[in-house]
């Protein structure tokens, strides 16, 4: 058997680990057994990483886990969240070795309870909720396999009643990766920003954190070669990496070895705080969906990692169509420098999404919005990063009967989407509805309410036809008289994978 055949068999084995299929043929194979078209099949295993939620003793955190119903899955599987310490004590296949040892040694019921997952899914199609409180809640490592893996979504939502970062903070737990961009961070005196790094693996990860301000790279050696121990979370305070105080900073997290989950927690002394999720990968055109209609201040922060400047058209996809913000028709982004522009009260009582496209030469860019609601001492902040489209399917969890807004935009072509409101965490029946979003518009959808809803529910958005759709979900909650809010984008959940079909006979590959 030649080297080509061995490589293909190795590739087939890798795909089998994800999708359960192992048969492959080369795309250009000649003879009677050419490769067939790729089939979309559910993934069979996935991981999600949740950062430590807060340093405040007043923090109250809710974790919500949900897997949408997916055709083609088996009947077995599980999904669970464990603290990093618990995961470290387990075996590679997810079994809790520590719990087994405790049982064998006749340890107390309390010890056995401490070894249980923080949260464990019950069935696809129904959310499951777990709670934590105080400043000692650790980073969590989650794994899902079998019927729970495709589209598995976990949200971490925290209410902080007072102090720096008070308000509502929310973040989607993220899949491990090797590179992240965070435009919109800050090292200003009134901001306390942390980069949270979570390592899910058995070996240490080594990471570099680079900061870019209005004049380019901010010199610092403290961000080089940071080691994150196995099965652990590490919050890195940005002000410990540099003495420079800048309002608008782009953070670049690059993993030298291993893989990590990364999120930025941005806490403001006066404007509350929230999580800043990573921007979509650098691209020439970006969509930042779902700016709340009552936003009182919107700031756009952009960065281009390339060697050439970027000139971008700035458009607002409103409910009635595209609008050019007066005085901010274009944005010039110098290579390697962070650019920011205050759009002010650009919404004027209407929802919208910001669409960035190149004026001429195509240059990759990352971007995010800082959005402020409220006035005076009751102001609160959230962030909207550039997002990938909804694609095949995307999900937002921890929705309530009141205080939830789903915004969908079709910036380039009219799109049709199907929205499903799941059964509630404590009861109810799922319901679906299809919507048409006209080209160049953003719509706050009147969502279908689950019948007999009890508890919180999940919203799943699926592309039906037309152009790409982008979406975000806004949660609003009042804490100590202050209306806090948080926004999460809904990128494709990547719950399906394309696997080439193949004939059983691989003899055509042999020479």
Structure description:
The structure is a single chain. The protein is mainly β and 511 residues long. 7% of the residues lie in helices and 48% in strands. The strands form ten sheets. Strands 10, 12, 13, 14 and 16 form a five-stranded antiparallel β-sheet that branches. Strand 17 and strand 18 (272-276) form a beta hairpin. The longest helix is centred in the N-terminal third of the chain and has 17 residues, at 3-19. Mean pLDDT is 87; it is low at 1-35, 91-112 and 504-511.
Helix content: under 10%
Mind summarizing the main beta sheet?
5 strands, antiparallel
Low-confidence stretches: 1-35, 91-112, 504-511
The helix/strand class is mainly beta
Q: Count of DSSP helices?
A: 4
Summary?
The protein has 511 residues and is mainly beta.
Secondary-structure map:
Layout: H1 3-19, E1 38-42, E2 45-50, E3 60-66, E4 77-83, H2 84-89, H3 97-104, H4 109-114, E5 119-120, E6 128-133, E7 140-146, E8 153-160, E9 167-172, E10 179-185, E11 191-199, E12 205-213, E13 216-217, E14 226-228, E15 232-237, E16 249-257, E17 261-268, E18 272-276, E19 286-291, E20 295-303, E21 310-318, E22 321-323, E23 330-333, E24 338-344, E25 352-358, E26 366-373, E27 380-385, E28 394-399, E29 404-410, E30 415-421, E31 427-429, E32 431-437, E33 441-445, E34 451-454, E35 457-466, E36 470-479, E37 482-489, E38 496-500
Antiparallel strand pairs: 1-38, 2-7, 3-6, 3-8, 4-5, 4-7, 8-9, 10-16, 11-15, 11-17, 12-13, 12-14, 12-16, 17-18, 19-25, 20-24, 20-26, 21-22, 21-23, 21-25, 26-27, 28-35, 29-33, 29-36, 30-32, 30-35, 31-34, 36-37
